[in-house]
């Protein structure tokens, strides 16, 4: 299948293909995602389609906690197939991962937001002959989890959510919440709002959603990876926020859906203006991600997401997690493992493991573009 090499992908084609292909990806002509069969050192296990090539040694990476559960699955499967490789991914937050990448401490970083222009410039010191590029790898909803006894179906909208996280709404029986939940007995419990203590792309995506969907209520910097609003309580990583919400009556917080699923945390349905409130599910996130447009140029696939969508069934608090790597100038000793691992994660097989873990696999056309780029890393 020939892929058109363009700086951007047509939004119409992306939308049409993503909805039908986001949950179960169709391989583009071949199960071989290595850039060509028969290359020197190629080794494919009988148990899977994972191709190890010349991968060996330790591959260090760090970053996003939102993608940790996906990364755990990928690492387990890849290491089982490629016995000579150890992939070590530290889930320290997107900001921490990018810092380690630009300092040359890791082969790639996981981030829930694309590199900023100044971070691209910084990456050129490490990528001696190139620069850091954003490779979308997994999507998903940022769930708003809550812990409120007796309330198992809670609806909020963007303005109300903004006021909660800005500590302007302090009680669960506030009139604004009650209006969105007619017939629900809301207690007068004090709201305990939790946010990330570390720099986080998940935080940045929530900032962007609130800034675009509730601009009158949310005046904080939408580009910041650090929590900007006053008050609330901080916890480290998505796992820390999820655990805090799970253990605190009256709590509310934000984290990738897989954390809510794993800890059986109730999640908010969003009143987006669509015909019905929208639940945080991988399918509903995929509908929103379908509207994404590529804003990067060349081999950079940074995406622009539509946080204001009112399409029926489209959950708007979404993130796309990137793997950030050098397009050129990678270290010779880690390049084979880097390419083999990323070839697997974006492959049909690698993407299929995501849905059951609460993630949304990449839309078909974006996945195909990533598969085209990874083998060219040098």
From TrEMBL:
Similarity comment: Belongs to the PstS family.
Segments of this protein annotated with the region Disordered: 215-241
Parts forming coiled coils: none
Domain PBP as annotated: residue spans: 55-349
Protein name: Phosphate-binding protein
NCBIfam families per UniProt: 3a0107s03
Signal peptide as annotated in the record: 1-27
Family annotation (Pfam families): PBP_like_2
Any one Gene Ontology cellular component term annotated for this protein: ATP-binding cassette (ABC) transporter complex
Residue spans of biased composition, Low complexity class: 229-241
GO MF annotations, alphabetized: phosphate ion binding
Compositionally biased intervals (Basic and acidic residues): 217-226
GO biological process: phosphate ion transmembrane transport
Entry keyword set: Phosphate transport, Signal, Transport
PROSITE patterns, A to Z: PROKAR_LIPOPROTEIN
Binding-site list for phosphate: 64-66, 94, 112, 200-202
């Amino acid at each position: 299948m020939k892929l058109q090499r363009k700086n951007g992908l047509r939004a119409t084609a992306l939308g049409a293909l993503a909805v039908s292909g986001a949950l179960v990806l169709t391989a583009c002509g071949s199960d071989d995602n290595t850039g060509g069969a028969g290359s020197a050192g190629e080794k494919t296990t009988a148990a899977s389609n994972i191709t190890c090539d010349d991968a060996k040694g330790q591959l260090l990476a760090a970053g996003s906690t939102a993608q940790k559960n996906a990364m755990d699955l990928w690492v387990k499967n890849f290491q089982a197939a490629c016995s000579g490789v150890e992939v070590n991914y530290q889930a320290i937050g997107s900001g921490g991962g990018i810092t380690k990448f630009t300092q040359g401490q890791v082969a790639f970083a996981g981030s829930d937001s694309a590199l900023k222009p100044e971070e691209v410039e910084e990456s050129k010191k490490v990528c001696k002959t190139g620069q850091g590029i954003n490779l979308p790898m997994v999507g998903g909803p940022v769930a708003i989890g809550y812990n409120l006894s007796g309330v198992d179906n809670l609806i909020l909208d963007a303005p109300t959510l903004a006021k909660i996280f800005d500590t302007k709404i302090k009680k669960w029986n506030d009139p604004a919440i009650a209006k969105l939940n007619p017939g629900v007995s809301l207690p007068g419990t004090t709201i305990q709002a939790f946010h990330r203590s570390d720099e986080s792309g998940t935080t940045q995506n929530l900032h962007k959603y609130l800034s675009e969907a509730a601009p009158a209520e949310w005046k904080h910097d939408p580009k910041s990876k650090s929590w900007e609003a006053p008050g609330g309580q901080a916890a480290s990583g998505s796992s820390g926020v999820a655990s805090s919400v799970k253990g605190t009556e009256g709590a509310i917080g934000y984290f990738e859906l897989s954390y809510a699923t794993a800890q059986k945390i109730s999640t908010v349905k969003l009143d987006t203006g669509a015909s019905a409130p929208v639940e945080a599910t991988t399918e509903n996130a995929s509908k929103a991600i379908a509207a994404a447009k590529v804003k990067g140029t060349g081999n950079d696939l940074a995406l622009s997401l539509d946080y204001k969508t009112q399409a029926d069934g489209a959950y708007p608090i979404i993130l796309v997690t990137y793997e950030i790597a050098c397009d050129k100038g990678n270290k010779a000793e880690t390049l084979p493992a880097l390419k083999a691992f990323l070839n697997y994660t974006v492959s049909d097989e690698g993407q299929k493991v995501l849905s059951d873990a609460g993630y949304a696999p990449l839309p078909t056309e974006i996945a195909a573009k990533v598969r085209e780029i990874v083998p060219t890393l040098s």
